[in-house]
Automatic annotation (TrEMBL):
SMART domains: AAA. Keywords: ATP-binding, Nucleotide-binding, Transport. Pfam families: ABC_tran. The lineage of its organism: Bacteria, Bacillati, Bacillota, Clostridia, Eubacteriales. Residues 4-199 form the ABC transporter domain. Gene3D superfamilies: P-loop containing nucleotide triphosphate hydrolases. PANTHER family: SPERMIDINE/PUTRESCINE IMPORT ATP-BINDING PROTEIN POTA, SPERMIDINE_PUTRESCINE IMPORT ATP-BINDING PROTEIN POTA. The keyword Transport applies. The keyword Nucleotide-binding applies. One of its GO terms (molecular function) is ATP hydrolysis activity. This is Sulfonate ABC transporter ATP-binding protein.
Length: 199
């Protein structure tokens, strides 16, 4: 089977139907972009696949050879990191991903995203792109085989956006991480994804 198989997913909020019979496969190490206009239900889809929202119809199967039931929910990277704790340093923001993380694991993730030299800074001392790289490092230390990215670079300037798109592709390739990215931006989907799925 594929890494993740979504079959006939349907989801409504009251009378509002967002997802109807939606199916999707994600293969190991694959980068899949889900595209659609604002409000169509992209974040809702991500929350369901990521195990945060369990109230849906349909089935989602996670390859038991890979996950063995322990890897869900998956790490998320959201648009611009309000998710960083402003009073903690870069390395401590990564550390909150897991109690048993070693300093070596944290350092390795920070090096992967080019932030090791900035590890003692606070979020207020970082650019938007650097904050997103902290979020990526925090997702990396989870050592998940899947990462979920929700409009991750929408608030960045075009130059920083394309640098981070390339970084995410490199991380996916070098570490074998499947990426599911939701975006309303076709150029972002085309720049990053092996496959684009329209909603
Ligand atoms: N918890 C909720 N309760 C009720 N309605 C909700 C809830 N979450 C989402 N919705 C509804 O679902 C719609 C789609 O939300 P969602 O965030 O999934 O869309 P999206 O495609 O990611 O949009 P955007 O690109 O603007 O983030 C919203 O407009 C809202 O009406």
């Amino acid at each position: 089977m594929k890494l993740i198989e979504v079959r006939n997913l349907s989801k409504s909020f009251g009378k509002e139907t967002l997802l109807k019979d939606f199916s999707l496969d994600i293969g190991e190490g694959e980068i899949v972009a889900v595209m659609g206009p604002s409000g169509i239900g992209k974040s809702t889809l991500l929350n369901i696949i990521g195990g945060l929202d369990k109230d849906f119809e349909g089935t989602i199967s996670y390859d038991p050879k890979v996950f063995d039931g322990i890897d869900v929910p998956f790490p998320f990277v959201f648009q611009e990191s309000e998710s960083l704790l402003p009073w903690k340093t870069v390395e401590d923001n990564v550390r909150i991903a897991g109690k048993s993380l070693t300093q070596e694991e944290i350092d390795e993730a920070l090096k992967s995203v080019g932030l090791y030299d900035h590890r003692r800074k606070k979020p207020s001392e970082l650019s938007g792109g650097m904050k997103q790289r902290v979020s990526l490092a925090r997702a990396l230390v989870c050592r998940s085989r899947v990462m979920l990215l929700d409009e991750p670079f929408a608030s960045l300037d075009p130059d920083m956006r394309s640098r981070l798109q390339e970084l995410v592709r490199d991380l996916s390739r070098s570490k074998g991480i499947a990426m599911l990215i939701v975006t309303h931006d076709r150029s972002e989907a085309e720049a990053m994804a092996d496959r684009i799925v329209a909603m």
